[in-house]
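Could you join me in thinking about how sequence relates to backbone shape in a protein? We need material for that, and I hope you will provide a protein of your own picking. Once you have written the record down, we can walk along the chain together:

…
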Amino acid sequence: MVVGRAGFKFQNWAQTYGSNPELYFQPTCAEEVKEILDLARQRSKRVKVVGGGHSPSDIACTDDFMIRLDKMNKVLKVKRSSTYSKIVIGWLLSDPHSVIALHSLSAPRIGAVSEVAAAGVIGTGTHNTGISHGILPTQVLSLTMMTASGEILECSESVNADIFQAARLHLGSLGVILNLTLQCRSAFRLQEIQFSSPLQQVLDNLDSHLKASEYFRFYWFPHTENVSVYYQDPTDKPPSFKTSWFWDCFVGYYLLELLLWISTFISSLVPTINRFFFWLLFSGRSERVDISYKVFNFDCRFKQHVQDWAIPIKKTSEALMQLKSWLEKNPHVVAHFPVEVRFARGDDILLSPCYNQDSCYMNIIMYRPYGKDVPHGEYWLEYEQIMKRVGGRPHWAKAHTCTRKDFEKMYPAFNKFKNIREKLDPTGMFLNAYLEKVLY
């Protein structure tokens, strides 16, 4: 019999949200998951499954029962064919890529952080970049889910297809994902080429950049005209590394946190800090070659507030120039670097921010040096207004102020998702405050 632990305190990685669940469970098998759901039903408790806690919002918080499936962490099956390979995994945490690599496989694309849960990654619509690639849930070929009643459902394009299109981006609101089958490819290396460019030049040549690299992205440094462009492409070249690794890994980032902390007292320093660190770490050109997931991953060194919206790709230049213009007209508002701009192919997943449209993701941050909060409300509000004006949809894992009324306008299939959710969970076992806000 699985036993819940009282007194557990949950806090997300950014330390911006937390909760105190009544009981915290770590089941080891599907039978124990069912025991927990049975107990929750008997006591009229809600249930929230938590992964790595990297979502910078309250999507994973609950005061009732919390489940963490890290003890169900394993590779269940590997299958190869002439066209693609697939791997069936449980609840992988703490760098799943090294496990997959044991089978000489790799995910075609992953997010920026590895210390996450597989079902959480798809459940919130995690993405990388590359207009020929969809968000990470598009890699899911099938999944197994336990509903609030304890029923186990197999879902794929051919079995429970409607549920599958909802469950590939589930928000933790449909049931407990027990395992996933992911499409993979043979393990590969990436060559990353980074170079600097003026912002307007990048925007004027956006189509050319999208065609020039499989995984293209760029960083704009607010309060400047500076952009750092990244091309990442598969290669057979041997591993090699940046010559600036000493600055990147040791001096640069520790100095950045100190200067950002000082800027919380003298906010006018932020534009100078942005220009200085562009010159120090990102100006010029650099190259490296490494295993794909090491290139995809980004070392999030500092706690931060984050927003990330997907907008129609044709609106990229308009939205970014509106944000830049507003900052120039409001010099009292500071904006930390970088604004990260990435791209994803459209899909048919019901709650995907890329539903029925190729998209540009525009990610803004405000660092919290040494955990100190910084004023960001005015910046956040204007950014959201710009994103809404150009037809944007917020990343489900990130902080935003949208409610059900907003999502009904943004998502043609919003009510279809809700109907599926209510059939699978009629009593609202898998709801929490966040889900009530966005769904009801």
Observations:
- The radius of gyration is 22 Å.
- The chain is about 30% helix and 25% strand.
- The chain has three domains: 10-68, 70-187, 189-394.
- Residues 10-68 form one domain.
